[in-house]
């Protein structure tokens, strides 16, 4: 193989095609003659529509158009075929689009009718997913609205591309800075062993650019690799440039992949990458995996990750240059969900993000992540690196998908300042701020913005040491990142040996795996935790950093010491009891003989109070010991709640057979409105009223410093919920923290002193590793990649 050269990375395209269509503009488009040629980047371009749309019933077309993502609306309506996005192409004079079509699986779980409709429209079907009832498909642009009008279609999104993005905080400081040194020690009888919680027995799936199979950081104390399985969806997805498949209409290769079938066996063989020379030719996934679960090599530098005993599952969804497709990420999530019980995969790390224009309710990546949570997998997502504009202004509203979903744990990046002490820690300028700004058009044609409180917490993400990937055969060929940024490898005392080499990265994508590793420790300490209970524990025990608000740091900085103490106090059968329906609202959550631990920790010689903050329902802030002494229905991973919306997912497993155990392999996952039930019990404290309405200038509401709110809660403030929070006839009472439109949250308006409220994240090609948000990703001095002072 030709050695990799230090070539310049293509600059991701950043044209903004996610535009807002008003009802008035749509009605005009429906009844007007074909419009003149217009630019794709303007809302007026939407007045040019397909023939089928112009002749359709207005009400029906309005409903159909509302199902189509705004960036896809613009692409199909443009007067000329867009050339700045990868999911649009003109073939023989016909404009085609690659899309994700989300269906309604209630009566047709295999989406047979929808697949037939796509073929009849002149399209192709590439894949049918389990995590979301959806198809990866090719469609003529002129037929998108026709498909959207079908009753079995919930939404259509473009198959957006994936792309990518870290220097010297050593992992020994990472251990101290997170409090993990309080929960384990080195084994004096084993050079590579640990005593205490190290994640042993827990599987972590890394969806990324791959993991170097032969790196010694991924071995156990006996020298056996903890990388249990590698799969690559670049080998079987429609990103593979197979002339018989890619951009070819009229085919359907979405055969059901049921357990034990020949199709399933062939598919698993097709995605096996072990025959390839490179485990990770880009280098990002290897580093991420090492932060989550790397082991110390007993060299000059300590290379220990958070969970050095955890098992790793490498799910490759990005190519050698850090690019991929949304369809491949969805297929990767499907694979993890399918094998989760078989391999005990309890954690999924997504250090990638999408510039979705869609609400968490309809966005395919958010839906897939939500399905993983419903299946019992704790999903960790990077918040993104879009917290600062090119001019240096602070940007709010920059959380990307799937971090904008209520069910995932969204992680921002903290700067440890190169010390183990936490008193000088701060939030990185590049770390994405909340609230979430994705939106949807309601039945009245009004744009509704999600405005969730995010991120959930922060973790060290500045200049973090981790594994450097080289090729798996010669151990000499460098991966792309260290070739492009050689300063990442300039580490005093670091080994240059291929299977031991390290580098440094910064960003929310290295903060996220720190939380993924912490989650593995919690699940080792208490296997009965559910994903939302894990999130509540991590938030409640976090340390609020000074001078940072709820939209910058969430509940605060990761505190593994406190989280483990709280997890050990709880009963270990919560997950199984919730699944079986035997754990009722308000039942005791404490283990026999256990009581709530003292809500404070001491790390690196400094003591601090826990935040005692838990986000719920998207905009609610809860607190109080009742959150953990009583079972709260919001800890059911199948339940998702945001303000007045509550949804429940049901996981349907393939039935038991001769060679297939029952309740092991998911067949489908369906979502429906949640029925009448309690969400939060009486006795829980509400802190929503304490923060007030949101004003950046007044430092109130969502802009209130987390440490201020935490101090009030420590002092006994908060309102005791007397009757709990309930769903009544499908409506959830209480608004929570009010984030109003207009002056406070406006579209891209600079409020004061360089603070910007963004209309959302539009990155270029869609799904990207969170480090792709920097203004110039090929700049060798790029802060979100190399770190901040």
Structural features, described:
This protein is of the alpha+beta class and about 800 residues long. It folds into 2 domains: about 1-15 and about 160-240 and about 265-789, Rossmann fold (3-Layer(aba) Sandwich); about 25-85 and about 90-160, Peptidase S8 propeptide/proteinase inhibitor I9 (Alpha-Beta Plaits). About 20% of the residues lie in helices and about 20% in strands. The chain is built from 21 helices and 37 strands. Strands 9, 10, 11, 13, 15, 17, 18 and 21 form an 8-stranded mixed sheet that branches. Strands 1, 2, 3, 4 and 5 form a 5-stranded antiparallel sheet that branches. It has a 4-stranded mixed sheet with strand order 12-6-37-14. Helix 9 packs parallel to helix 13 (about 510-525), helix 10 packs parallel to helix 11 and helix 13 (about 510-525) packs parallel to helix 16 (about 560-570). The chain is globular, with a radius of gyration of 25 Å. The two termini are about 40 Å apart.
Features:
Rossmann fold; 21 helices; disordered N terminus; five-stranded antiparallel beta sheet; 22% helix; globular; 789 residues; eight-stranded mixed beta sheet; Alpha-Beta Plaits; alpha+beta
Give a short overview.
The protein is α+β, with helices and mostly antiparallel strands.
Number of strands: 37
Count of spatially separate domains: 2
Helix content: 10-25%
CATH topology description of the largest domain: Rossmann fold
Tell me the Rg in angstroms: 25 Å
* Biggest beta sheet summary: 8 strands, mixed
Please indicate the percent range of residues in DSSP E strands (runs of 2 or more).
15-25%
Large-scale geometry: globular
Query: What would you call the structural class?
Result: alpha+beta
The total count of helices amounts to 21
Give the name of the CATH architecture of the largest domain.
3-Layer(aba) Sandwich
CATH-assigned homologous superfamily of the largest domain? Peptidase S8/S53 domain
**What is the residue-averaged pLDDT?**
81
Distance between the termini: 39 Å
Question: Which regions have little confidence, pLDDT < 50, spanning 5+ residues?
Answer: 1-56, 164-172, 728-735, 738-781
Determine and state the CATH class of the largest domain: Alpha Beta
């Amino acid at each position: 193989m030709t050695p990799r050269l230090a070539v310049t990375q293509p600059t991701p395209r950043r044209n903004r095609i996610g535009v807002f269509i008003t009802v008035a503009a749509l009605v005009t488009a429906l009844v007007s003659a074909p419009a003149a040629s217009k630019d794709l980047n303007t809302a007026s371009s939407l007045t040019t529509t397909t023939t089928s749309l112009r002749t359709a019933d207005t009400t029906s077309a309005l409903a159909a158009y509302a199902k189509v993502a705004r960036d896809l609306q613009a692409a199909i309506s443009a007067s000329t075929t867009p050339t700045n996005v990868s999911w649009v192409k003109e073939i023989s004079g016909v404009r085609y689009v690659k899309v994700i079509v989300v269906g309604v699986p209630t009566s047709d779980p295999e989406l047979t009718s929808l697949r037939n409709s796509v073929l009849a429209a002149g399209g192709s079907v590439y894949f049918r997913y389990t995590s979301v009832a959806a198809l990866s498909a090719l469609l003529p642009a002129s037929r998108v609205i026709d498909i959207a009008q079908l009753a079995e279609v919930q939404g259509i999104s473009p198959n957006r591309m994936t792309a990518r993005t870290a220097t010297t905080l050593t992992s020994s400081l990472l251990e101290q800075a997170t409090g993990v040194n309080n929960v384990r020690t080195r084994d004096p009888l084993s050079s590579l062993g640990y005593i205490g919680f190290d994640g042993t027995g827990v599987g972590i799936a890394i969806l990324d650019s791959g993991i170097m199979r032969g790196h010694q950081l991924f071995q156990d104390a006996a020298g056996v690799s903890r990388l249990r399985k590698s799969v690559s969806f670049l080998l079987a997805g429609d990103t593979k440039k197979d002339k018989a498949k890619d951009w070819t209409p009229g085919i359907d290769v979405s055969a059901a992949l049921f357990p034990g079938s020949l199709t399933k066996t062939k598919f698993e063989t097709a995605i096996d990458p072990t025959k390839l020379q490179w485990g990770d030719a880009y280098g990002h996934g290897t580093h991420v995996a090492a932060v989550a679960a790397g082991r110390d090599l007993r060299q000059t530098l300590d290379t220990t990750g958070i969970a050095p005993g955890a098992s790793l599952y490498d799910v490759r969804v990005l190519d050698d240059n850090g690019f991929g497709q949304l369809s491949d990420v969805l297929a990767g999530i499907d694979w993890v969900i399918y094998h989760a019980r078989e391999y005990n995969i309890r954690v999924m790390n997504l250090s990638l993000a999408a510039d979705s224009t869609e609400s968490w309710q309809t966005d395919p990546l958010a839906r897939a992540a939500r399905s993983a949570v419903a299946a019992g997998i704790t999903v960790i997502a990077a918040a993104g690196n879009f917290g600062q504009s090119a001019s240096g202004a602070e940007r709010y509203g920059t959380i990307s998908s799937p971090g904008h979903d209520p069910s995932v744990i969204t992680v921002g990046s903290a700067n440890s300042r190169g010390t183990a002490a936490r008193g000088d820690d701060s939030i990185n300028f590049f770390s994405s701020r909340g609230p979430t700004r994705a939106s949807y058009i309601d039945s009245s044609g009004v744009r509704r913005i999600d405005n969730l409180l995010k991120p959930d917490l922060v973790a060290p993400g500045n200049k973090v040491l981790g594994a450097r990937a080289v090729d798996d055969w010669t151990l000499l060929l460098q991966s792309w990142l260290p070739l492009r940024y050689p300063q990442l490898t300039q580490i005093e005392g670091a080994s240059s040996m291929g299977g031991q080499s390290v580098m440094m990265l910064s960003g929310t994508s290295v903060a996220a795996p720190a939380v993924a590793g912490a989650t593995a420790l919690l699940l080792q300490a208490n296997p009965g935790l559910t994903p939302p209970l894990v999130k509540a524990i991590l938030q409640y025990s976090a340390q609020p950093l000074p001078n940072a608000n709820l939209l910058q740091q969430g509940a605060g900085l990761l505190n593994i010491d406190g989280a483990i103490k709280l997890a050990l106090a709880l009963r270990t059968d919560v997950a199984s009891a919730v699944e079986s329906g035997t754990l009722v609202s308000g039942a005791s959550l404490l283990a026999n003989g256990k009581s709530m631990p003292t809500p404070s920790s001491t790390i690196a010689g400094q003591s601090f109070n826990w935040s005692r903050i838990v986000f719920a329902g998207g905009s609610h802030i809860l607190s109080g010991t009742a959150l953990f002494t009583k079972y709260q229905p919001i800890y059911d991973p199948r339940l998702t709640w945001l303000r007045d919306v509550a949804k429940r997912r049901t996981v349907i497993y393939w039935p038991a057979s001769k060679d297939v155990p029952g309740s092991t392999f998911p067949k489908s996952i369906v979502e429906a409105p949640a029925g009448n039930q309690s969400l939060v019990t009486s006795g829980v404290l509400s802190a929503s009223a304490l923060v007030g309405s949101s004003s950046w200038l007044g430092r109130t509401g969502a802009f209130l410093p987390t440490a201020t709110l935490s101090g009030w809660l420590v002092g006994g403030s908060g309102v005791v919920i007397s009757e709990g929070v309930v769903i009544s006839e499908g409506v959830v009472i209480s608004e929570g923290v009010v984030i109003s439109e207009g002056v406070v949250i406006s579209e891209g308006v600079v409020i004061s002193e360089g603070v910007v409220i963004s209309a959302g994240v539009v990155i270029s090609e869609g799904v990207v590793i969170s480090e792709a948000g920097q203004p110039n990703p090929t700049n060798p001095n790029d802060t979100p990649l190399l770190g901040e002072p």
